[in-house]
Amino acid sequence: MNRIKITVALLFLVHLAFAQTAPPTDLATIEQNFKKLDVLGSVLYVAAHPDDENTRLLAYLAQEKHYRTGYLSMTRGDGGQNLLGNDQSELLGLIRTQELLAARKVDGAEQFFTRANDFGFSKGPDETLKIWDKEKVLGDVVWVIRKFRPDVIICRFPTTGEGGHGHHTSSAILAQEAFTAAADPKRYPEQLKYVQTWQAKRLLWNTFSFGTVNTTAPDQFKIDVGVYNPILGKGYGEMAAESRSNHKTQGFGSARQRGQAFEFFKTILGDAPKTDLMDGVNTTWGRVKGGEAIGSEIEKIRKDFDMDLPENSVKALVSLIDKVDKVPDEYWKVQKAKELNNLIADCAGLWFEAYAADPTYAVGDQMAIRSQVINRYGLNISLTDLKVIQHTDNIGSTTDFIEPLAESTLRVTDVNKMIPKNELQTYNNECPASKISQPYWLESPHPVGNYEVSHAGNIGNPENPNALYVKFEFAIEGRFIVFDRKLVYKYVDPAKGEIYQPVVIAPPVTANIDGKNYIFNGNLPQSVQIKLKSFTKATGSIRIKPIPGWKIEPEKIDFANKNKGDEWTLAFVVRPTGGDAKTSTLEAVVNANGKDFSMGIHEIKYDHIPNITLFPPAEAKLINLDLKIAGKKIGYIDGAGDLVIDALKQVGYDVHPLSENEIMNGDLSTYDAIITGVRAYNVNPRLAIEQPKLLEYVKNGGNLVVQYNNNNGLVTKQIGPYPFSVVNKRVTDEDAKITVLDPLNPVLSYPNKITQDDFNGWVQERGLYYVGDVDPNYKTPLRMNDPGEAPNDGALITGTYGEGRFVYTSLAFFRQLPAGVPGAYRLFINLLSKPKNQPLN
Fold first, then answer.
1. Beta carbons of 762 and 821 less than 8 angstroms apart
2. What's the CA gap between 623 and 643, in Å, rounded?
């Protein structure tokens, strides 16, 4: 009888090797895997963000030298920009995590993270390490080192600041301190219940030449990593470009490079290498007791390998299993046993996978699972067990069916299995596991600097370690071998063919509040629309938690007999009742089938990464502020992606995205203001053609508001009617003091009187890519600076041109408005509100 069991295990003890669905089994992969099986060495590369890693070096280390290679990124890149869409902050971090994993599939390295949050640009390590909570993040780096056990650690950046960004310098400082701390049993001793101390042989800095900064020198140790790999049919410069081009949200598409390319290194700690990166490290099987005989057998099997008959090597490979199992070094035993098992499956032509019938299931429901197995060469292979697992360890193996697999016959198993209820389950009181598919680092609210991770064993993992996967057990040539395959949803798209996506475990019913922020101006009520979606048969109700200072009607709304896939919208009326309530949080609570849930659903879909689903809190912000609006109709020219349009619609503006035809041939005078989205002059080459029309609109009495642009890659230098330049200067302290230089300027007085209070509560930064060399025809009404820096007047400039007004702002409104910062709304509305019959400057 076929049995599939849900098993809970103690993840904390084991590093999860994420299951893949049918990894490559071509001859090039087999040859590379043979080489890797014969190498016992590891290298960990350390930097701050996704896209900081040296993909050429990673590819060389993993694919040419066959070391176990890892990249530890301090952050998930949450504070970066998004050239592909509107997802920002934590959502962008989710996307960039998947971009990193896609890059690792190309270059062959593994991916790790700390719990540090990318809170935006930082000018120095003192600020960074204070916000990150240095001791926590240092402990994360030590944890990864102790688990990964690198022989060599390499930093992308130095501790001396040449990397520019405070996060960059901090990553090097943390790596340097962790190099020593990981070997010290007095540092983070709580980790030693699960891992051992570890001393790497050396810590190197991978020096660089970026722009005007060149930190390489002829006397530094160097490696030519531009060599050609004939097995793969490409050099590592080509492979690096393919890897790096996965960072699509950052616009890092790269050209393939061919030919000699040297990487330079400076020794920071440990013994300096003289002839090889691994000088002094035994990377052969002679490294472990009894390993010489294993190395000799691998060499013979590889020598006898027949590319026309790979299955002939299976018996010899299977005979190695017992020898590898007896290796006393637990770390290398685990690593090499996994590699050996995969090589056996590759040579045996054994293909297998498991997938669910639907993409989404509610906790507690039945999941239809299909597994498929094929024995392509007709070897002596039987399928002995199948289990659905939510953790890594196998508790209670079963072998109650043994079914020989006929040659080239697809073996299909269909099973329905109950998904665990949405309860925190515990194994040995140590490993809680929420069954809903929520990224583990987003399960709880977090401060600015780092994520709150409830289970320390999850730290380092790029994805949820408790995602469902299927454990296949085979008898191959009389030996039981276990493999993991991630449980996925598979379907056929008429245009794209066979598609794999993650399986999502959802709450029974989700509640998406229509707006992120609700702006109240006085005591007038607003309707709060909530869209509910059922992922199972459900009956229940929805309510909004009482909020002091606000009246909510009705108290609750019932629903009944909803089926999986049903969607419906309900509305509550919310009004302020006076008092001191200025900003409050609205929380919707769904009672479904007798249990309370307060989760929405958010799906992120880009073609270059798997779909991402998360369940954010069913919350919105209620903001009661004194807000005056002049004008109504706004034209918007899209840039790299922001949420400003939604914010403006919330306060009552009619916002219309402008097409090129409308800009070139339409009547722009109907718009009270036209706004360009963030980085529009970087990503929209047509703006160079459209710019004269926009300036003509200003000259004829219009109001053009240009949001920030990067100083590199501008499609035109003539953004405004008078000269100015965009420079790489910013104010990163979101609480930086604001000095008003021109209090009578209408942008500070009409229709809202701007005060110092309006600059309170800003998030991440004041602004970025300020302007310089400002023509005298512009006014600079604001001045600000980071601590210890000269005053900067380039955050906001305004200028009269003809009958109209031109505004350029580097203030980070694209962050402040979605975050519901009251003063940012008031100031931005002023930028859109050109006074009539009054001086503009």
1. yes
2. 17
Q: CA 175 to CA 196: how far, in whole Å? A: 18
In sequence order, what E strands does 133-201 have? 152-155
Q: Which has the closest alpha carbon to 774: 833, 713, 723?
A: 723
For residues 663 and 694, the answer to whether their CB atoms sit within 8 Å is yes
Taking the CA atoms of 373, 376, 381 and 382 in sequence, report the sign of the dihedral they define. positive
Give the Cβ contact number of residue 739 at 10 Å: 12
* Cα angle: 264, vertex 269, 271; to 5 degrees: 80
Integer Cα distance of 338 and 327 in angstroms: 13
Tokens encoding 370: 């299909």
- 8 A C-beta contact, residue 692 and residue 716: no
The region, left, alpha or beta by phi > 0 then psi within -120 to 50, assigned to residue 77 is left
Phi and psi at residue 679, to the nearest 5°: 60, 25
Q: Cβ distance 704 to 673 under 8 Å?
A: yes
User: Distance (Å, rounded) from C-alpha 200 to C-alpha 306?
Assistant: 38
Which is more confident, 255 or 179? 179
Query: Smallest Cα–Cα separation from 727: which of 791, 775, 771?
Result: 771
Q: Which amino acid is at 325?
A: D
Q: Is 81 helix (H, G, I), strand (E, B) or coil?
A: coil
The strand pairing partners of 6, in sequence order, are 388
How far is residue 588's CA from residue 569's CA, in Å, rounded to a whole number? 13
d(CA 56, CA 53): 9
Reading the block at residue 532, the tokens are: 């509910």
Q: Quick: pLDDT tens for 635-679.
A: 999 998 888 999 999 898 999 999 999 999 999 999 999 999 999
Q: DSSP letter at 183?
A: T
CB 505 within 8 A of CB 436: yes
CB 487 within 8 A of CB 18: no
Q: Which amino acid is at 109?
A: A
Tokens coding 266:
């400076």
φ and ψ of 802, to 5 deg: 65, -125
Three-state secondary structure call for residue 203: strand
Separation in Å, CA 543 to CA 85, 312, 528, 572, 602:
32, 66, 12, 9, 20
Of 253, 244, 240, 249, the residue nearest 95 (C-alpha) = 249
- pLDDT tens for 144-189 read 999 999 999 999 999 998 888 999 999 999 999 999 999 999 999 9
Contacts of 442 (CB under 8 A, 6+ apart): 90, 451, 614, 616
Residue 260 contacts residue 226 (beta carbons within 8 Å): yes
Q: Report d(CA 114, CA 72) in Å as an integer.
A: 8
Q: Is the pLDDT reported for residue 508 higher than 90?
A: yes
Quote the tokens at residue 273.
């290498």
pLDDT in tens, 758-804: 999 999 899 999 999 999 999 999 999 999 899 999 999 999 999 99
Residue that has been written with the tokens 């919330």 in this structure: 650
Q: How many CB atoms lie within 10 A of CB 425?
A: 14
Name residue 382's beta-bridge partners.
404, 475
**What gap in Å lies between CA 152 and CA 150, rounded to an integer?**
5
Are 629 and 650 in contact by the 8 Å Cβ rule? The answer is no
